[in-house]
């Protein structure tokens, strides 16, 4: 028997219309490329998005067209998210940190019609203009008075906005494509995840209920995580839906700029990858205090080190460790501790927070061995993590082979992460499969060693990578960044030795001034393996 309830298509613009009606006075604050602090309410944002939608139609944008963005976190970028999807086109976010050849490949592959770019990125695009499709048009995200000189024949964003009021938003199937984001192509060519209205609205609702401590009408949230990659972890949709205010940091993501902005805007919850928080914590130490109003941080994208979690918790900032990936819209887990776990002693809570949290509603997870057999959720058995759900990719854009490889007949998506799940449901990521170190037939988790090393007070950053070894296949090498006094190699290894079996310890330590980062701000182990692949280790 079927239920007798209406079926209305889920639509992204409804989120912003709802925010206008329910939280119309709540502000979006943007530290802009222009250098100013811009403020507008959700109601004003909705009106500007309507004007932008009219402008897009006037530019000839049709349903299904891919419209690219190359921009920092700011109100115009958010407006594009809503206006492009609202008229049935696809908002394709480009990551400016990608190498030029990948950027060209992605624009070509997506067949973008128009590229909206921040003034900052004009030189970057001018440099590769002659290798981009001749039909690609440009709009510069600025007012006419701030339009930089350029050879792109590009109008100013503010000039294409057509009046205020509302727009007659078209109605379409909820499975219509709404957004496109490519992985950073660290293995093979970049692959596109094509989100839909349905997946995006469901993801916003799921994030809203999962992150109630950060996303609510009393909260101001700072997405340091970029709008140009994985939908800024869903915040552009989840914040308006839950009535949280947004503070966009623009291009300046160093510790001092973030501290100042968070302090003056009284940001409650800040979201980003660990490398960003390393810099913010250094600034907090320097100034002797955290920004006013700061009480919550969401850390994901790569593992949050124990020392970082402890430092935040000790200053009264609650850490929520989250895990996800582009293909999951991206949130998969969150690490909030409900009672009675919230009442555990601090050290036990930190033991739990070091893990990557528990699944969010709508995400199914299992871990499997090399033959695809399910492994027990006992906190010890480790295997590849497979996921399934309404916000998980069912394939890759114009790349059926890659989709077939990643998704099995029962619809499980293979994440490429090696993990365990404990009997309370907490996920612990041991490594990306490609970063695990296989020594003498046994696996060594680079993340576990890194976490232990980072507890050493002299070490600011580190990475453990596999180096080929004649006898053992691979052996771990530690690359460490020590801004002050440099401890001896022996001292570092002795420091972590109690936590590991002898064969798991790195054979050598290499010191570096800094670690190379990927386009998504994570430590690039691929680059480190290239640089140190020939390193001759002392005998294991
Ligand atoms: P990219 O590879 O471009 O950075 P993603 O942002 O989609 O793309 O990265 C997803 C991957 O990041 C996951 O598969 C996992 O390996 C890693 N990751 C994400 N969050 C965490 C976390 N909290 N701890 C450890 N690894 C994480």
Task: Give a quick summary of the entry.
The chain is of the alpha/beta class and 540 residues long.
What would you say this structure looks like, in words?
The protein is of the alpha/beta class and 540 residues long. The protein has 3 domains: 11-205 and 218-237, 3-Layer(aba) Sandwich (Rossmann fold); 362-432, Luciferase, Domain 3 (Luciferase, domain 3, Roll); 436-532, GMP Synthetase, Chain A, domain 3 (2-Layer Sandwich), CATH 3.30.300.30. The chain contains 16 helices and 25 strands. The strands form 6 sheets. A 7-stranded mixed beta sheet has the order 2-1-10-9-11-12-13, sandwiched between helices. The protein has a 6-stranded mixed beta sheet with strand order 6-5-3-4-7-8, sandwiched between helices. Helix 8 links the parallel strand 9 (220-223) and strand 10. The termini are far apart. The relative contact order is 0.09. The structure holds adenosine-5'-diphosphate (ADP).
Counted beta strands: 25
Instruction: Give the overall shape.
Output: globular
Low-pLDDT segments:
none
How would a textbook summarize the main sheet? 7 strands, mixed
The name of the CATH architecture of the largest domain is 3-Layer(aba) Sandwich
